[in-house]
Amino acid sequence: MAKENTNRVDGQVRAGTVVQAHTIEQLNLTQQAPPAVPWQLPPELPHFADRTDEQERVLVATSEPPTAGGPLVVTLIGMGGVGKTALGFQLARTLRRLGRCPDGILHLDLDDLRRAGVVDPADALGELTLGLDPDAVLPPGYADRRRRYWTASQDKRLVLVLDNARTGAEVLPLLPSSAGGIVIVTGRGPLHDLDTARAVELPLGPLDGEDATGLLRATVSTPGLAADPRLAADPEAAAELARRCAGLPAALHVAGRWLRRYRHRELRRLIDELTVELDREGVPVVEAVWDAAYASLSPAAARLYRLLPHHPGPVVTVGAAAALLGGGASGAEDALEELDEAGLLLPRPDGRGLHDLIRGHASRRAEDAAEDVPAARRRLVRWYRRQAARADLVAAGPRLVVARPAVEEPGLAEAPDLPFASAHEALHWLEREHLALYGCVRIAYEDGLDADAVALCEPLWTHFLDHQHYTDVIDAFGLGVAGADRAEDPLAVVRMRCQLARPLWEQRRYAEAAEALRVAVNRAELLGGTELERKLRASAVEFRGKLASVRGDWAAAVPDFEAARAEHLAIGNTYGAMLQTYLLGRAALALGDPGRAVALLSEAHQVATDLGRERMSSRTAFELATALRAAERTDEAAPLYLAALDGARARNSAADELRVLDALADFHRELGEDAAAAGYRTEADRLRG
Q: Would you say residue 222 has pLDDT above 70?
């Protein structure tokens, strides 16, 4: 190992002042660029009903200098389809153009996070904090996350659009701490419990008269061409169609696309056709608009429309659509494009999905069709299972998994696989699709696909290690446990309980974690002697030891780590033995034996490096550096800390990076190298917020 103390950074752009030195005698202070300003809005709609009066009220309120008392809160209240979200986005864009939110625009749809009607505020705070600072380290608890969000949002002039709030209690924890912030909240009813010092409430009704007809006229017009002459030639028919849309922008957009599709037919004839649909018994006013658009679809697009309500995520991709249809990418892409052209897909910041009103209509159309919904749901679950397993393999490498082989599903072979060129790309996909993946666990369990529920939990474990969506992960692994029990799968019974235990103990639900591990260890003792069964038995004991260490009882953890290590060595599992050696090294350090810690961690670090396991190579480097420091072998510790920092940054693991930066700051302070210590402390403080 090198004997010279060095201090360097990895070249990644980060905010704040960083100390960079080839040697401690030569210091260079570099001011790095601030993080990018967030912009979480979809592309601007080509046609929008201005709602001039409502916009003017907001602009007047925001023109006043911000004062104490928290951010300005604007609530847009109205029925579904009335255009609340579109107006919220339009207001945000206008405020940006006027320079009133220089620190960016955030968007969060609370329905995306809603489970059994409830939003976990910790998850919502995590999403907002990462929107402001993608490198932020998220603490596990609600109170700590709220403080972290307050720090990230302090003094910022930003706009936050919160969609689909049901109560003021859902909104209050998410308000930024800055009086210069503007929060735009949409909801279907008044938020009586939203008690804020600065508020503007705007009830939104349907568009009427010229506003509704104008939006219809704009939607019918083909971009780049003259306005459709039929509306000018028969203004009464145009007004009648607008009335039949009940003044709802969501319906007017679909009606306009429908008219544009049949641009050579007489307007009055089309209105008469719609009237026939409207007069059917039990059909609501705007239902006929959806029916007309649906009737104009090709068979493939209509079938996809009927199946889309079963997709659990907010955004529908080509691959997921192909799985629902049981075909290839080209057919799915054509069907999605056709639905988009018909106005039946809603633009979102990260793609396109179904509006709630249209989702309801699609579900009702599915009731009238002889669609094999269970088969489509199986294809969707197994497509996501296949992609997640592939992403997991790229991101984490070969590891212990217990899922039974997937059952071949007819019609799924043509659905495209996604290319994962790197671990970063695979991890990014797991995060981008995590709502759909967690939703597929629920579908799998509901439909009795227990092996698929367990298999989906396996890659979600890899995702969880870097993205702690606690509500979702505890729900998912709870279903994994229930599915394993129902399937009477002895391997999965053990594995799912072990994986459930960690998020439980990280939420300080120690008794529940201990009970899960008690059952896991007892069941593991009943397993046979195959290599997989012995690995799983060792894993269960290891998890029990980890729970003891988390609770500060390292002495109780050591026998479990030693037993697990012996089992792995007996079956020749080099990686498993290395992991236990690492844990024993940490235990030795915690118990005040740095010499033994250095020996154990040196062995673990060498094996992890030889195996090419980047995560463990980085973590063993960090622990070994800490042990060397405790043993007063500081020259050997310095390069290992830097290697651990490089590894954390390469994996985009903010939590590991923060831990290393804190250690480096303390390390250089102890050496009397105050400038270097200050640089690392600045970086750590920025991450911590």
A: no
Cα separation, 548 vs 557, in Å, equals: 5
Q: What is the pLDDT of residues 257-268, one digit of tens each?
A: 888 878 777 878
pLDDT of residue 266: 81
Mean pLDDT, residues 222-238 taken together: 74
> What residues form DSSP beta bridges with 352?
347
Mean pLDDT over 480-488 rounds to 97
Interatomic CA distance for residues 212 and 259, integer angstroms: 15
- What distance separates the 2 farthest-apart alpha carbons in the chain? 91
Q: Note the pLDDT tens digit of each residue in 583-638.
A: 999 999 999 999 999 999 999 999 999 998 888 999 999 999 999 999 999 999 99
Q: For residue 380, give every residue at least 6 positions away whose Cβ sits within 8 Å of its Cβ, in sequence order, or none.
A: 310, 311, 320, 323, 324, 440, 443
Distance between CA atoms of residues 430 and 411, nearest Å: 24
pLDDT bracket for residue 68 (50, 70, 90): low
279-313 confidence digits (pLDDT tens): 443 345 567 777 878 888 999 999 999 999 999 99
Residue 411 has, within 13 A of its CA and on its CB side, a CA count of 16
Closest C-alpha among 145, 200, 156 to residue 179 = 156
The span from the CA of 163 to the CA of 225, in Å, is 34
**3-class secondary-structure state, position 171:** helix
Q: Could you tell me what percent of the chain has a pLDDT over 70?
A: 91
Q: How far is C-alpha 543 from the chain's CA centre?
A: 27
CA distances to 62, 101, 179, 531 from 157, in Å: 11, 5, 8, 58
Cβ(564)–Cβ(576) below 8 Å: yes
Tell me the domains of the chain and their CATH numbers: 52-203 (3.40.50.300), 209-295 (no CATH), 299-371 (1.10.10.10), 372-488 (no CATH)
The total number of residues shown for the chain amounts to 689
Encode pLDDT of 638-658 as tens digits.
Answer: 999 999 999 888 877 778 888
Identify which of 535, 527, 502, 537 has the alpha carbon closest to the alpha carbon of residue 516.
502
Q: Where are the alpha helices (DSSP H) in 551-633?
A: 554-570, 574-590, 594-611, 614-630
Is the separation of the CB atoms in 436 and 384 below 8 Å? yes
Q: Which of 82, 80, 75 lies closest to 200, judged by CA? A: 75
Exposure class string for 316-326: b at 16+ Cβ within 10 A, else e = bbbbbbbbbbb
C-alpha 665/C-alpha 655 separation (Å) is 16
Report residue 521 CA to chain centroid gap.
32
